Amino acid sequence: MRRQGVVMLLAVARALRPVAxxxxxxxxxxxxxxxAESRFITGHPDCNVTPYxxxxxxxxxxxxxxxxxxxxxxxxxxxxxxxxxSYDVFDGEDPVVTTTQCFDDLNIPPEHPGRSxxxxxxxxxxxxxxxxxxxxxxQHLRQGHEAFLCTGDVYRRDEIDASHFPAFHQMEGVKLxxxxxxxxxxxxxxxxxxxxxxxxxxxxxxxxxTLEGLIKYVFDDxxxxxxxxxxxxxxxxPSFELDVFYQDEWLxxxxxxxxxxxVLDRCGLASRRGWAFGLGLERLAMVLFAIPDIRLFWTDDExxxxxxxxxxxxxxxxxxxxxPVFKDIAFWCPESYVENDFNELARSIGGELxxxxxxxxxxxxxKTGKTSNCYRITYRSMDRSLTDVEINALQDSLRxxxxxxxxxxxx
Length: 411
Ligand code: FA5
Ligand code: MG
Description:
The chain has helices at residues 2-22, 31-40, 51-54, 68-81, 99-102, 137-142, 191-196, 198-219, 261-266, 281-289, 302-305, 339-350, 388-405; strands spanning 88-90, 96-98, 127-129, 147-155, 167-176, 226-233, 236-246, 249-259, 274-280, 325-332, 354-364, 371-379, 409-410. By secondary structure, the protein is of the alpha+beta class. A hairpin with a 6-residue loop joins strand 11 (354-364) and strand 12.
């Protein structure tokens, strides 16, 4: 079912591209599309990369020194450069990785939802667009790097709102501790004993102190509110998450933890311990530059780009807030229904004109057991006013394609 759905979705997205593109004049030049399609849209039955996503790969926003993502990356790297430990710096790994790199090396079990096709963009059954920069941890550890930073674009089929985008950027950080720092300890075979040990505590405390130092360095703002939360990742233990308060909400900016014994074992490093973190560059940049919507990072609009300079943190001045257009769509769902498939369809049809997809009502009929969902789509351009005609056309396409590609029953 799913497989067929994805193939159909792809066909739909392809067929619709001219419509979507004509409403997005500021996207990439056409020539890169064909190039991207051949590599990422493989024709493999498991491929669920859409032209919209393929078109985002390779923009390398994090390497542009006058782009907010490049500016914040440089700033974070500068902080680490000032520390005692010397970090090797990477930012050019291929975003196409294997399931081994992205999941198996990291203890992520086959049934983990993050591996499913509703969450991840696959090129084939074994190749995918990395969902996190942790996909490169093990390779660098095996190559003998003991402390490193690694930045890149990552891809996820995810919810749609002002702080979530299907393509975003992460920076990974890893640090191994020396034998001396571990009080001479090299035998970590008793797992419970390790987790309860003062050495494990040393690693966790160093991790938090390093990241708190980073936030202080990057923001230089005594009023910035942050909080630590316990988290879970299969590849760290214990695991934590850091939130920053922004626009009246706690915004999750990074996940981190003490590297899991199994991950190190697989790299031939059973006698070593260390920490790792993965931070979302957009999230930090939104706070630092006061950028209200994650889609802005992808714009080609000069009014955005002329506001930023290499090495300089400045407050973004919205050139204008164009009015939103709200459209609701409600339908009965088939049993196979997955919300991310609808999100993906919306993105394929409306592109960056869609600011938010919000489930505003779910209802299950007690007699039939059938479930209905109602979504509110917020259309808003970052660059201009939208016309009724174009939004109605997009919404009509979304309705038609939801009915045919996702087999929902429109209400
Ligand atoms: C991870 O991706 C882990 N690999 C992080 C990690 C690395 C943990 C090393 C432990 C050790 P998570 O899925 O929470 O974790 O994502 C990390 C960060 O990416 C989030 O905190 C958030 O800042 C950012 N992020 C996640 N999803 C999105 C999205 N759709 N759009 C923008 N940013 C996102
Ligand atoms: Mg998280």
